[in-house]
Amino acid sequence: MQQGQQNANGVFLNGRAQVIELLQMLSSAERERLLNQMKIKNPILAGELVEESVCFDDISRLNSRELIVLFQYLTPVIVGMALKGVEENSQRKILSQCPRQFAEEAFEIMMTPLENERVNIRRAQQKVIEVLIQLRRRKQIRL
């Protein structure tokens, strides 16, 4: 038995990265419930984990005001590319909240086939995540 890997109660998660990875795999409701429980015992750690466990799917949890704030910090190209990897209903919800010109440009990018599409989608989604984290730090949005 490896030291630090198991204890009498079961498997021991050895590292913050593993916890963040697990949080990212949970649904937003489950993640929120766990982090709220954690806030009771350790609010600083819970706050850090909230920030580090942000994933692109969290954009669908934003209300219309928060989406408008988010769009002020992103270009239509980034939004369109990031939304290529999302299901159609989420694309509609998100694009319906942005200004018409912005939405049309983002939609055009979504429909344009590109080389290295997966890599570009991942980069665009990562950029959105970075902006989400910055806006959360400034308390302009809630996640």
Q: What would you say this structure looks like, in words?
A:
There is one protein chain. This protein has helices at residues 16-25, 28-41, 43-52, 64-71, 76-83, 88-95, 100-111, 117-137, and strands at 6-7, 10-11. It contains 8 helices and 2 strands, in the order E-E-H-H-H-H-H-H-H-H. It has 2 domains: 1-53, no CATH class; 56-143, Flagellar motor switch protein FliG, alpha-alpha superhelical domain (Annexin V, domain 1, Orthogonal Bundle). Strand 1 and strand 2 (10-11) form a beta hairpin. It has 143 residues and is mainly alpha-helical. Helix 2 (28-41) runs antiparallel to helix 3 (43-52) and helix 5 packs across helix 8.
Brief digest:
This protein has 143 residues and is mostly helical.
Keywords, separated by commas or semicolons:
mainly alpha, 2 domains, Annexin V, domain 1, 143 residues, globular, 8 helices, two-stranded antiparallel ribbon, 64% helix
